[in-house]
Amino acid sequence: MGQTKEARFQVYVGTYGKYNAGSIAGKWLDLEEYNNKYDFLTACRELHKGEHDPEFMFQDWEGIPDKYISESHIDDEFWTEYLPAVNEHGEELVAAAVACDVQIEDIGEAYAGQHNSDEDFTENLLEETGDLPKDLPGYIHIDWTWTAREIMMDYAEDNGYYFRQL
């Protein structure tokens, strides 16, 4: 038996007319099944073809950052920028970038790695840039909490993903 792909981006589509009449009848639609917003809206119209001029109501959604969706609207950037970026960089990285207010087109330049803590990130960053000598004498103590606090003024983090603020 073949394995089915789990949908990453779903929207439960009802209509305001049904909702106002006391019904939440609708259906979950997998956005990855549609090439663009137009195809998605065509599927919504087909789903609610029994209503004359239905006003679509997105009653629930999964995997879509709130920045791109509301109860009555899906932003064009979700289709033109977010989905292509997810296909290029991966869903977790792109979601973290959006949460850190990194522009989609800047992800490649802003991404600074994945780490367990600000202190781990800071130590790794300083080692990679050569700002921390590899043979640091044992009598020198670095306060990584303080150093990370200072370094993080120029970086943002979400779920362990770090981004340089451009």
Number of distinct beta strands: 8
Number of helices: 7
For the termini, the CA-CA separation is 48 Å
Order of helices and strands: EHEHEEEHHHEHHEE
Q: Structural class, from secondary structure content?
A: alpha+beta
| Helix share bin | 25-40%
General shape = elongated
Q: Could you give a short account of the major beta sheet? A: 3 strands, antiparallel
Please state the CA-atom Rg, rounded to the nearest Å.
Answer: 22 Å
Segments where pLDDT lies below 50 for 5+ residues? none
Mean of residue pLDDT?
Answer: 90
How much beta, percentage-wise? 15-25%
* Number of spatially distinct domains: 2
Strand order of the largest sheet: 2-1-3
Summarize the structure.
With 166 residues, this protein is of the alpha+beta class. The chain has helices spanning 16-20, 37-47, 76-89, 91-99, 107-110, 118-129, 144-151, and strands at residues 10-15, 27-30, 56-62, 69-70, 73-74, 111-114, 155-158, 161-164.
Structural notes for this entry:
- With about 170 residues, this protein is an alpha+beta fold.
- The chain has 2 domains: about 80 residues, no CATH class; about 55 residues.
- Helices cover about 40% and strands about 20% of the residues.
- Strands 2-1-3 form a 3-stranded antiparallel sheet. It has a 3-stranded antiparallel sheet with strand order 6-8-7.
- A hairpin with a 2-residue loop joins strand 4 and strand 5.
- The longest helix has 14 residues.
- The chain starts with 9 loop residues before the first strand and ends with a strand.
Task: Break the fold down into its secondary structure elements and pairings.
Blueprint: E1 10-15, H1 16-20, E2 27-30, H2 37-47, E3 56-62, E4 69-70, E5 73-74, H3 76-89, H4 91-99, H5 107-110, E6 111-114, H6 118-129, H7 144-151, E7 155-158, E8 161-164
Antiparallel strand pairs: 1-2, 1-3, 4-5, 6-8, 7-8
